[in-house]
Amino acid sequence: MDVGNIASSGWSFFCNTLVISKTKSTDFLLRFETTRLSSQSQDTVSLSALSYEQRLNELRKLHKNTDYNSMTEKDISLLIRKRFMNAFPNFGAMAGGFYNCAGESSIYTKVLDEYNQQFVEAKGERVSEYPSASDKEGRKEWKRYTYGYEGLSDSEIMEKLNEKYNTGTLADRCGMLWEMINLDLDGGGGWDAIRQIQNEMVKRTEGQYGSLHRDNPIRINAMIGVGENTTINWTQLIQNCYEDRKDNWTYKSEALKQQILMELGDNLNQLLDRLGLSQANFS
């Protein structure tokens, strides 16, 4: 892998108050809408009996029957995001690229496309209220409000994230990293750790099935299964990330390699610090 050809990847999603919408819907929709006004611990409606397509259909009905006219952009974004997070507990992993192996026509891509489309439709022609790049504090407040962490300190948010993503699976790690990145809490090492999650999925799948074409359904299903069921602690994941970059990437020069590894080590140690873990001695 030539580092010169690697481009940073990222996903940017508008996420922004709970305003009671006017709906004429089924009992399911009414139950769903009522639930989002409950406390965090009770804020997920069980949709396990519904397929992903059925969940999307229910979300489309909610969207169609919601009056967004009196809502701000922040209100709209938080409401839509909260609905999708409730309907799909693995939404953070989807947004973080965990399911990219399934391809652009997968149900996971459809979920993300629907999410973005609903926001565009709800926002309509109104001018964006998102703070400018120079207003760092305004952006920070916006993100925390729209992710449901308004008024919380960094440590309080991290506590909430640890409660939310508590299984230790690669999928949960990805979802938590995605939120940390969007909340500027990853210390700069978030995307590198997400890349390593994808590496772990590939390596563990190939260890069981050998090298298969990336579009092979066996490979795709195996990778998703590995990611959703394999647990790994943060320290090991981050150490693996550094070791993979050091041992398996090619660089144009030794000086460039050392520079990149030094920057990577700094970012990963900041990530470990945000996670409340001891820093590593990368070498």
Keywords:
about 280 residues, mainly alpha, 12 helices, disordered N terminus
Describe the protein's architecture and organization:
- This protein has about 280 residues and is an all-alpha fold.
- It has twelve helices and no strands.
- The longest helix has 21 residues, at about 255-275.
- It is globular.
- The two termini are about 20 Å apart.
Shape category: globular
The number of strands is 0
Largest sheet geometry: none
Percentage of residues in DSSP E strands: under 5%
Distance between the termini: 20 Å
Quote the average pLDDT: 85
The whole-angstrom Rg is 20 Å
Poorly predicted ranges (pLDDT <50, ≥5 residues)?
1-45
Count up the helices: 12
Tell me briefly what this model is:
The chain is mainly alpha-helical and 283 residues long. The protein has 12 helices and no strands.
How do the strands and helices of this protein lay out in sequence?
Elements: H1 27-35, H2 52-64, H3 73-87, H4 91-95, H5 107-123, H6 136-146, H7 154-164, H8 170-182, H9 190-209, H10 217-229, H11 234-248, H12 254-274
